[in-house]
Amino acid sequence: MNDFSGRTAVITGGGTGMGRALAVALVKESCHVAICDVSEDAMAETQALCQAISDVRVTTHLCDVSSEEDINRFQQEVEAAHGDVIHLLFNNAGIGGGGGFVAGDRGEWEKTFAVCWYGVYYGCRAFLPMLIKSDSGHIVNTSSVNGFWASLGPNVPHTAYAAAKFAVKGFSEALITDLRLNAPHINVSVVMPGHIGTSIAINSGKILGHTAPLEMSEAEVRDVRERLMSQPGPMTELLMNLSDDQLREFMHNRGIEFRDNAPTTADQAVDIILSGVKNNQWRILVGDDAERLDARVRANPFDVYDLDFTALTTISAS
């Protein structure tokens, strides 16, 4: 599929970040778009950006992708608004966090896993019949570099997110054969971004029920301090010397810096993704950091979880 004009695309997590950039880029190519998100305000901003570019159909749908009921309702709304055929499905929605399996909060672990894995699975289940009705379709599932390297470094438990992203990668690879045998006009790509300039670090806390950093109570600040200091590393001494207000500011700025100081912007990421779709690449690495890390993991997979493995430990999801 090297031309998106007149096609219809479904994008989960279309309110911000790569989802918004995907919507804008596709509209520029005269593609109709249906986006879902948990934020109506964010979707309205995306819709306004798209409508300023073109008069193609752009619809917004409130949906929590971790809920199959929500996803199925989203599908029904898309069918009512766009007809019973779609051509592109971007399972893009995701959150960070979730922490560790051994000592982490089970509710946060399962919510992170549900958004990042079940959002992809439910999306494919719900929209596959509409893709099958197309003359040509493409599924694009967003995994992560943490889908081939299950770590943020030796001092950060990261099992929820990494387990989900490994599941997305494995599922997408298995779909290649499944679709070839049963729906050969549909292709699939798995996207593995490195550090992309999005608001995922800011938005994930909201979805997991965390108080905004600048609004944290004394008890919440204490919990954050204890959690961060339980992870040995160069930050420990710094955290010991921060006042509560300084720690609030530190946490606030960390999310902003993740968004604003990334080596790859959301727009650049989308250029890579859509080029990969047009070239029918089943595996799409996004960012030079993702390329480098992939090469290092492939070169010596036995040592990637050693304490002295010096890969980019600040890499996270889109």
What does the model show?
The protein is of the alpha/beta class. The chain has two domains: 8-198 and 264-287, NAD(P)-binding Rossmann-like Domain (Rossmann fold, 3-Layer(aba) Sandwich); 204-257, no CATH class. Helices cover 50% and strands 13% of the residues. The chain contains eleven helices and nine strands. The protein has helices spanning 17-28, 40-51, 68-82, 106-132, 159-182, 200-207, 218-229, 235-240, 244-260, 266-278, 288-299; strands spanning 8-12, 32-37, 58-62, 88-91, 137-142, 186-193, 196-197, 264-265, 283-286. The strands form two sheets. The protein has a seven-stranded parallel β-sheet with strand order 3-2-1-4-5-6-9, with helices on both faces. Strands 7-8 form a two-stranded parallel sheet. Helix 4 links the parallel strand 4 (88-91) and strand 5. Helix 1 (17-28) packs parallel to helix 2. The longest helix has 27 residues, at 106-132. The two termini are 24 Å apart. Residues 313-318 have low confidence and may be disordered.
Please specify the SSE layout and strand pairing.
Elements: E1 8-12, H1 17-28, E2 32-37, H2 40-51, E3 58-62, H3 68-82, E4 88-91, H4 106-132, E5 137-142, H5 159-182, E6 186-193, E7 196-197, H6 200-207, H7 218-229, H8 235-240, H9 244-260, E8 264-265, H10 266-278, E9 283-286, H11 288-299
Parallel strand pairs: 1-2, 1-4, 2-3, 4-5, 5-6, 6-9, 7-8
Helix pairs in contact: 1-2, 1-10, 3-4, 4-5
